[in-house]
Amino acid sequence: MTTGAQPSDRVAGFIASGGIAGAASTLVFTTVHQFLISPIWFAFPAMLMAGALCGTSLAWSYALVVRTPTIGSWVNYNSLYLAVLVALGLTSLAVFDPVTTIAALLAAKEPPRQLIGRALPVTVVFTVATAALLSGIYRPGWRGAGGIFVTAVVIILFLGLNISTLGLVGIPRAALGVIAEVLILLLVLCTVYVALVVALGRTRFRGRRHSAEVPVRR
């Protein structure tokens, strides 16, 4: 199996496209959130920075673990992180009992820090499990595994903390659509991000749709 680093200039451009796409997808996410749940523009500057960091981290770790970039492998890589976030939310719903309501959270207009603290043990377990799972799938070597771990921490820190509190919020039957809305928001965020990176890096992916995915062992 052929291994080795990707050309540094191409890698840098790819990582930069990840940051740009992450910021742009945050704008779309915030807009959709306003229509589905509530306005969160007051937090947009911080979310924009978080989106850029998440996007940069995903592109960086992907470049570390996959030598030959393909659209398929890029979609698969991001889908794994999306699946982890969905699993985190489902686990929270199964493990925790509600201690507050949706109305109380919306009225507070601030991060639910106490709820995040209660859910922290589960969040930590999911972070470590995510890194272990992806490292087991890609077997990238220590450097790649380190990149995957950093990305898992960044993704769950900026996207997973609120998701981890779902089980602590009482959701009446009439408002079960909230869970579907959360899933839609995650899907929109992931889809826009993945598509933008492909568009920005179209020359990088061009002609490689049918190439084999080659993990980089370091």
Discrete helix count: 8
The biggest beta sheet reads: 2 strands, parallel
> How much strand?
under 5%
Morphology call: globular
Residues in helix, %: over 70%
Mean pLDDT equals 85
Distance between the termini: 13 Å
N to C succession of SSEs = HHHEHHHEHH
- Tally of extended strands? 2
Low-confidence stretches: 1-6, 209-214
Radius of gyration: 18 Å
Task: Give the structural class.
Answer: mainly alpha
How do the strands line up in the largest sheet? 1-2
Describe this structure in words.
- The chain has 218 residues and is mainly α.
- It has helices at 8-36, 44-65, 71-95, 102-108, 113-138, 141-163, 177-200, 202-205, and strands at residues 100-101, 169-170.
- The protein has a two-stranded parallel sheet.
- Helix 3 (71-95) packs across helix 5 (113-138).
- The longest helix is centred in the first third of the chain and has 29 residues, at 8-36.
- The protein is globular.
